[in-house]
Write a structure and sequence with these properties.
This protein is α/β, with parallel strands linked by helices. It has a single domain, classed as Luciferase-like domain (TIM Barrel, Alpha-Beta Barrel), CATH 3.20.20. It is 38% helix and 20% strand. The protein has helices at residues 27-36, 54-63, 81-94, 108-113, 121-136, 171-180, 195-208, 229-242, 268-279; strands at residues 13-17, 41-44, 68-75, 99-104, 141-144, 149-153, 165-167, 183-186, 216-224, 246-252. Strands 1-2-3-4-7-8-9-10 form an 8-stranded parallel beta barrel, surrounded by 6 helices. The chain is globular, with a radius of gyration of 18 Å. The relative contact order is 0.17.
Length: 281
């Protein structure tokens, strides 16, 4: 983790999710509506074989003025670490303070499908995340690991301070996220009642590594599109109590595809209302 990483949020920030089952041509409409509603963040992710992470993130950042854009997450087996560093640094220089990138080992079956699955995803993520953090910090990096090899690689245009989030579920990856990341990305499989215990695994490893900077925690929350402000608040409050810093909300419906995301804007005003209430506390 970098000493140059920015100070991260202490209160819970509420954002909207644009899931990758949506056609890319809908993204501009959603991004502009999200910003108009006063919602501070729009979350994307790179998903096989739907959408990449960099192209949508760059588009949203260019279309909007203040919206922060999270990518949760880039699967590291698909990308050379130098290329990822170049792309993230470029976006961070073009749009300072607005990019929240996350990395993870990806869905292993998909990685196998494209010939990118490695025998030790955890080792790859450790080597990759460590090298990426150093590159984003402007260092000249030479390393020869099991999976990541760099020789005197240094970004010509190093970025302003940029956080690096790590997607994690199992205890070993959670510990790794605490050790090498500025933040942690949790998905819905991390049950709300277990969030505090889940975060504690990462935090303990962070403490043991002597890292005092706060751990930024992102939680992807799926809710019915019929939810009102009270229901959304009730879903978010235990996450806040457990230590979550950012919640990315995705609306689900019963009358559409499995995740109901064709109605992605149904919760827009409700999320905006809840976010406004939280910020005024």
């Amino acid at each position: 983790m970098s000493s140059a990483a920015p100070t991260l949020v202490a209160m819970t920030s509420i954002g909207l999710t644009f899931p990758p089952d949506q056609p890319p041509e809908r993204l501009r409409e959603v991004a502009l509506a999200t910003e108009r509603a006063g919602i501070p963040e729009l979350w994307l992710w790179e998903d096989c074989f739907s959408e990449s992470g960099v192209a949508p993130a760059a588009s949203v950042l260019a279309w909007t003025q203040t919206l922060r854009v999270g990518v949760g997450l880039f699967p590291v087996p698909l990308r050379n670490v130098a290329l990822t560093a170049m792309e993230l640094a470029t976006l961070a220089r073009l749009f300072p303070g607005r990019l929240l990138p996350g990395i993870g080992h990806g869905v292993l079956d998909w990685m196998e499908q494209v010939g990118a699955r490695e025998a030790s995803p955890l080792t790859l993520l450790r080597e990759y995340g460590t090298a990426l953090r150093r590159l984003l910090d402007g260092e000249s990096v030479t390393t020869e690991g099991r999976y990541v090899t760099l020789r005197d690689v240094q970004l010509r245009w190093s970025p302003p301070p940029i956080p690096l989030l790590i997607g994690a579920e199992g205890p070993k990856t959670l510990a790794l996220a605490g050790q090498i990341g500025d933040g942690l990305i949790l998905v819905g499989s991390a049950l709300p009642e277990r969030v505090a215990a889940t975060i504690a695994v990462a935090q303990t490893a962070r403490d043991e590594a002597g890292i005092t900077a706060p751990l930024d925690v992102v939680y992807f929350l799926s809710l019915p599109v019929t939810s009102d402000a009270a229901a959304v608040t009730a879903a978010i409050e235990p996450l806040m109590a457990g230590g979550v810093c950012r919640v990315a909300v995705c609306g689900l419906s019963e009358d559409g595809p499995p995740d109901g995301s064709e109605r992605i804007l149904d919760l827009l005003q409700v999320v905006a209302e809840v976010g406004s209430q939280l910020s005024s506390r």
